[in-house]
Amino acid sequence: MAEMVIPGTYIEVRPEGLISAGRVATGIVGVIGTARRGPVGEPVTLSGFSHARDVFGLADPFNRPEDGAHPLTMLRTLEHLYNNGASSVVAVRVAGPSRSSATFALLDAANHTVATLTAKTSGAWGNDIRITVAPAQDDARIEGEVHTSTFDKLNYAPVVPSAENQLRVHRGVTKRIQTLDAVYKQVEEEDVPPDASNDYTLSKTPVEHVAAVNVIHVLDAQGAKVRTYGDGSILYGAGAPPNAGEIRLNPSTGELTFEASQAPTATQRVRARYAVGHAAPAAGQVLVTTWDGSLDFAAGEAPQQANGDRLEASYLVDRGSSVQISLRYGTTVEGYTVPAGTILADRINASPVSQVIATADATFGHGLPQAGVEAYFGTGSNTPGGNGAEAGHDEYEAGLEQLANELINIVVLAGQDDDSAGTLLLGHLNSTEQEDHERIGVIGAKGSTVAEFLGHSTAADRVILVAPGLRLEDGTVLPPAYTAAAVAGLISSVPVQTSLTNKTLTVPGLALKANRGEQEQLIRRNVLTVVQKEGFRVLKGLTTAGEGTPFSAVPTRRIVDYAKYGVRSAANPYIGRLNNTRVRAALKATLDAFLTRMVQDEALTQYALDVSATRAQEIAGEVAVIMTLQPTFSIEFIRVVMILK
Fold first, then answer.
1. Is 564 helix (H, G, I), strand (E, B) or coil?
2. Bridge-partner residues for 540, per DSSP?
3. What's the pLDDT at 585?
4. Burial per residue of 314-324, b for 16 or more beta-carbon CB atoms within 10 angstroms, e otherwise
5. Is residue 359 part of a domain?
6. Which entry of 44, 167, 214, 309 is 20 to 30 Å from 273 by CA?
7. Average pLDDT for 582-598
8. 193 and 243: one domain?
C-alpha cells in the first residue's frame, strides 16, 4: 500500500525488496556406523559427544571386538570428529544380520512365562541390564483399570482398603460420571485373647465362610504352631460340640468353641485370620470384597453394558501378592511394584525413560512373577544381545538412504575405506547432488602402507581420500578411516573458504610417517595426507578430482556448494510470487547481496550473475540463475546454471 509522505509524494514498499538470503549451513556431518546400542536405521541429531555415548554406548576394544572379528565403528569415529571441532552431527546406526536384542523371561511359581522383557534397542549393551525380583515392600497400585462388559470383579486381589482407592462409573446414556464410595469386606488378622471366662471371641463380625481365607492357629509360647484349623476343620454356626481337630465358629458373634481336651492352655495363644462381612451397599456405595476383588453395587446402580457404561478403577493390591522388580543399567535404576506380568508390561511401556519394552504373556500374563530372581538379560535360555557389527555394503547403503533428505554437508562412513565403500559413497554423493542436497564425502584409504594408498582408483571432486591411519597411546593402530573422521571434523569447523593445507589435527599419533618423496607421491595421487610437523598437520587439502581440475582444492568444492545453497535459500521466499521482470530484478538484488557478502568474506574473488526467464519459463514458474564464480584459491571461473522452480 502506498503511503503519502508529503502532498503529492507517495512511497510504496514492495515486500520483495525486504527479502534477504537466510543462513546457510556448512558444517553438518552425517555419520553412518555400527554401535553397541541405539536405534538402527534412524537419523539421530547429536548435541555432543556425551550425548553420543548415551545413545550409542561405548566402543569395544579395537583389537578385541565383542564379536571377535568386527570392531564397532560409530563411537570411535564420533570421538575423532568431535575432537577436531565438529559441532553438528547426524548419526545413523547400521547393524548386520547378527543383531539381536537381549531378553529376559519372568516366570511364575509354576514356571510359566508371565512377561518377556526386551532391551529397547539391539546390541550387547542389553546383556548388562541386571534384573532383580524380590517380595514387595509396598502395596502395588493399579491405575485406570477399565471394565466395559463385566463389572462384578476387579482384575487383581487382595485389595487394600485405602482412601486412595477410587471407583468411577461413566454412564453411557446420561454421560454422567459417578464416583462411588468404597466400603469393604475385609480380611482381619489378630491375636485372640481369652476373656475372664476363658472364652475366645473374634473382635470383628459378621464372619464370612471363606475357605481360602479363614484359618485359626494355636501357638505355643515360642510362636510355634500347636494346632491349625482351616477348611474342613472349622465348623460354622450353632451345632454339636466340635470333635478333636475341629473348632466351632459362630459367624454372628465371633465366638470360638474348642474340643474340651484341645482348649488352649495358659501358655498358649490363639491367632486368627478371617473374612469379615459388611452390610449391603447403600446408594452411592460399592462394596469391595478385598480377598477376591468382587464388587457389589447398590440396587439400580450397577453399570450396564447395554447402556454403554464404563467402570474405571484405581486401587491398591496387597504387598503380599505383589513383587518389586528392579532393572539396573549403569547408574540407571528402574523400579516397579506389580501384582502381575500385565501390569508390569503396562508400566514399562508407558515409561518414556525405560531401557526396555515388555510383552505380557497372552495366557499367563495375569500371574505373579516369582520372587528370588537376580540375573542379567540374555543369560540362561534368554536371548543375548548382538551388535550386528559385521554390517556391510547393504546396511551402509540403507544408512545412506536415511541421510539422503537430511541437511548434511559432509558424509563419513565410519570405519570404511575407499575399496569397500568408495563406490557406494560416490553414488550417494552424485545422487544427492541431483536432488539439490550437495555434500562431500571423506573416507579413509585402504591398507597401511604408502604403496597401498597410492594404488587407489578413486577420482571424484566430491570425495576426499585420507591417509595414513592412527596410532593410539596404547600402541593400537587404527585404519585411515578414523583419520578421515578427524579430517571431517576439521572441515566442519572452518568456513568454506578456508584451506585445509597445513591445518593441525587433534589425533594421538600416526601409524605411518611418510618421507618427503612419499609425500610428493601421495599429493600427485590426490591423497589428503596427514604428517607429523609441529603436531599433526594436513599436508595439502585436496579432493581426488586430480590436479588441474576445477575442484581439486577442497575449498573450491565447498564454496560452490555454499553458493548454490545460498541461492536456493534466497530464492525460496519468492516462490508463489509473480514471475515478471520486477520480481526477477528483486530476486537478482537479493542474490547480488548474498554473493557480495561472499566476496567480502573472501570466499569469492569475483562473480557475474544473471537472472532471467523465457516466456515459456514464466508460464511454467521457472527462473534461470546463471552464476560465473571465481572462488578464492582458484584461477578458474566456474559457471553454475540453476533452474529454480
1. helix
2. none
3. 87
4. ebbbbbebbbb
5. yes
6. 167
7. 89
8. yes
The model carries a pTM of: 0.85
DSSP 100: B
CA 82, CA 200: separation in Å to the nearest integer?
Answer: 79
User: Sheet containing 504-505: which strands, arranged edge to edge?
Assistant: 43-46, 88-93, 28-33, 410-417, 440-444, 463-467, 528-532, 536-538, 504-505
Q: Domain count of the chain?
A: 3
Condensed to tens digits (0 to 9), the pLDDT of residues 521-555 reads 999 999 999 999 999 999 999 999 998 899 999 99
Query: What range does the domain containing 126 cover?
Result: 103-139+319-376
Choose among 323, 359, 318, 354: nearest CA to 340.
323
Q: Find the angle CA(202)-CA(206)-CA(207) to the nearest 5 degrees.
A: 65
**Using H for helix, E for strand and C for coil, what is the string for 121-157?**
CCCHHHHHCEEEEEECCCCEEEEEEEECCCCCECCCC
Q: Are 151 and 311 in contact (CB under 8 A)?
A: yes
φ, ψ dihedrals at 411, nearest 5°:
-115, 135
* CATH code: domain of residue 600: 3.30.360
Residues 345 and 196 in one domain: no
As a whole number, the mean pLDDT across the chain is 94
Q: Is residue 610 part of a domain?
A: yes
CA dist 392 and 47 (Å) reads 27
Q: What average pLDDT does the segment 48-58 reach?
A: 96
Beta-strand (E) ranges in 422-493?
A: 440-444, 463-467, 470-471, 477-478
Q: What is the pLDDT of residues 402-455, one digit of tens each?
A: 999 999 999 999 999 999 999 999 999 999 999 999 999 999 999 999 999 999
Whether 126 and 179 map to the same domain: the answer is no
Q: Are 523 and 541 in contact (CB under 8 A)?
A: no
Place of cell 525486504: 18
Contact 257, 263 (CB under 8 A): no
List the alpha helices (DSSP H) in 552-638. Answer: 554-571, 581-600, 615-620
Domain membership of residue 543 (yes or no) is: no
What is the model's pLDDT at position 6? 57
Mean pLDDT of 76-81: 98
pLDDT band at 579 (very low <50, low <70, confident <90, very high): confident
Q: Within a domain: residue 191? A: yes
Look up the CATH number of the domain holding residue 118.
2.60.40.4290
